[in-house]
Amino acid sequence: MDDLIALRHSSARANTGAQRLLRHAARGKPKRLKLNRDMRADDAFRAILSDCLSAASAQASVLKAGRSVEALHHLRVALRRLEVMLGAFGKAFSLDWFGDLRSRAKAISARLGPARDLDVFLEDLWPEATRDGGDFAPLRRAAEDARAVAWEGVEFCLVSEDFSHFLDDIAALSQSRLPMGDDRSIRRVARTLLQKAAARVKKRGNPIEGGIQEDYLRGLSEAYTRYFYDYTESPLLIVNSERLNFVDSPEHLDLLVERMNAMRGGREFFNRA
User: How many of the other CB atoms lie within 10 Å of CB of 106?
Assistant: First the structure.
């Protein structure tokens, strides 16, 4: 599987250079999913689910190598995408047991939440909140202490059986050939999901959402896809990490750095034979 450095072997033994490489790699964007409107909905679901899993695994690997505010944010984004996927397709396929996986994704995200909230508070909100002066030192110390405890919770969560079993179950689902739903195409299922989303917007009756039309939701979805899967602002190297071990084999890291230095732009792929 072509991942953007989904490094499964990252650990506390990773050196500083490897940590920087992991963080750099995790900022990249995966290659565009090969979906088409006539694809069966269950095949499209597995492809999207596998993409979400790769993103979550990559960010978790970064966090296992060392603390990263950015990686924690992106891991929670990946978990949220999994929540949405499992909820939407569980209803589309009439598979209630998807709800259990969705609840587990939500529970893991909740365990990571306190650290993310305190990161935002101390990194983004603190300068604005204290700009008028005053003695905020006690509050700062208390917030930093709480943040340290919250990050210990993140570290514990990522090495827990709950987290590893969840990723294993998502991987098994993405690779299984169990029948899901009927023979409908992803186009038909997506249209149904979009109509239901529009109906929920209308039912909520929120004035801010009152003017949202189905065409807008469709355009928003397409724009999101183009941004995340057609990234061209900088050179992009997509690495197949299946035969690479950056922790125990320094020569693998040397190969990758050499390959990165040889890039001349555009989108390229690196596969170690």
Answer: 15
Which tokens go with 106?
């939500």
Distance CA 93, CA 86 (A): 10
Q: Are 75 and 63 in contact (CB under 8 A)?
A: yes
User: What are 238's strand-pairing partners?
Assistant: 269
Reduced to 3 states (helix: H, G, I; strand: E, B; else coil), residue 3 is strand
Question: CA 79 to CA 52: how far, in whole Å?
Answer: 8
Could you give the CA distance from residue 211 to residue 206 in angstroms, rounded to a whole number?
10
The number of beta carbons lying within 10 Å of the beta carbon of residue 231 is 15
The confidence score (pLDDT) of residue 204 equals: 76
Distinct helix (H) and strand (E) counts, the chain: 10, 2
Amino acid at 118: L
Rounded CA-CA distance 5/10 in Å is 11
Q: What single letter denotes the amino acid at residue 146? A: A
Please indicate, yes or no, whether the overall pTM of this predicted structure exceeds 0.70: no
* Alpha-carbon gap, residue 78 to 80, rounded angstroms: 5
For residues 52-61, b (16+ Cβ closer than 10 Å) or e, as one string? bbbbbbbbbb
Task: Give the chain's residues under pLDDT 50.
Answer: 1-30
Question: What 8-state DSSP symbol labels residue 4?
Answer: B
CA geometry: angle 40, 44, 47, nearest 5 deg: 145
Q: Which pLDDT belongs to residue 230? A: 62
| Pairwise CA distance, residues 61 & 24, whole Å | 12
Q: What is the rounded CA–CA span in Å between residue 48 and residue 13?
A: 32
